[in-house]
Amino acid sequence: MNLNKVFLIGRLTIDPEIRTIPSGEKVTSFGVATNRTWTDKSGNRKEATEFHNVVLWGRQAEIVSQFLKKGSVIFIEGRLQTRSWQGKDGVSRRTTEIIGERVQLGPRAASQGPSEETPEAAPESVEKPEEMPVIDLDEEGIKPEDLPF
Question: What are the structural domains, with CATH classification, of the chain?
Fold first, then answer.
């Protein structure tokens, strides 16, 4: 049995732009950045950032291009796909992308509050953005081998 599954939670690195291919189907592609923090053997805190190329099709492409912008949080479930092409300079090129199959939009930023079209919205009805929790296994004394999964 084979499995090609990706789960990402990260932030958009650019504003998504929707395109229509000749068949009429909508597509958008954008970058997502994910961070990882850990403590090395000498006790120094380390952080690394990975950048991922994501492609969405159909209605999901429309939703993401309408509601998200650079810096927005997104959860993506999808699969890896590598494609090859010949560049204009004659050099063969390859890229690996995440083809999104399901997406979930993250919390809205404070700057994305009620629009000017709805001035009747009271300040107390505006929800504060939810903070993304950071789980650091080293600081809380939890060992990976103690986890039940």
Answer: 6-111+118-143 (2.40.50.140)
